[in-house]
Amino acid sequence: MGICKFVYVILFLSLFCLPISICSLSSAELAEISTNFLNYAQKPELVKWMVDVRRRIHENPELGFEEFETSKLIREELDKMGIAYKYPIDVTGVIGYVGSGEPPFVALKAYMDALPMQEMVEWDHKSKIPGKMHACGHDAHVAMILGAAKILQYHRHELKNWRNSVSEMPERLALSVCRYDNSQT
Q1: Is the pLDDT score of 24 beyond 80?
Q2: 97 has which bridge partners?
Q3: H or E element, residue 47
């Protein structure tokens, strides 16, 4: 149950920690939207779906700028949700859009690249690709962003001018930092 609480906290913070000054809604309207979002985020079927997405990505890790199957999975899920997106962005990146496209905007971002290392833990959903694994949690990042996209899309009629940026391109600096940190242990 710990992962569920973690997912709820991340989704809640991601979706509602924006300056109130950019929002034209009253406090009561914001509270109602927050409650509706949280109720949807706590649905067991949403959590199960996010865990399944995370496991599929974890089992099939791809290195930076090689995430063609991960990107395909993301686009397929966005298509199922009816969310428009732009692809490709810097080889494999995807940007999904929820809302009208007019300001103000909220952008959410997730990395999706794996690391060139062998997964040594034995479990049902370990990496199926020798020498590659999701050791930095990017599989979970993508699952959480897709979960946020699903929540935003479900509640799009309650929102005005929201934009959700899903799984933008992996950045060389972020990938390098992950490799550097990993080599120091």
Answers
A1: no
A2: 84
A3: helix 44-59
Asked whether the CA dihedral 130, 66, 170, 112 is positive or negative, the reply is negative
Per-residue b/e over 8-45, b at no fewer than 16 CB within 10 Å?
eebbeebbeeeeeeeeeeeeeeeeebeeebeeebeeee
d(Cα 153, Cα 164) in Å, to the nearest integer?
Answer: 9
Handedness of CA 59, 63, 64, 66 (dihedral sign): negative
pLDDT attached to residue 12: 53
In this predicted model, what pLDDT tens digit does every residue of 74-107 receive, in sequence order? 999 999 999 998 898 888 999 888 877 666 677 8
Nearest-angstrom CA–CA distance, 145 and 54: 11
Residue 154 has pLDDT above 70, yes or no: yes
Residue 59: how many CB atoms within 10 A of its CB? Answer: 17
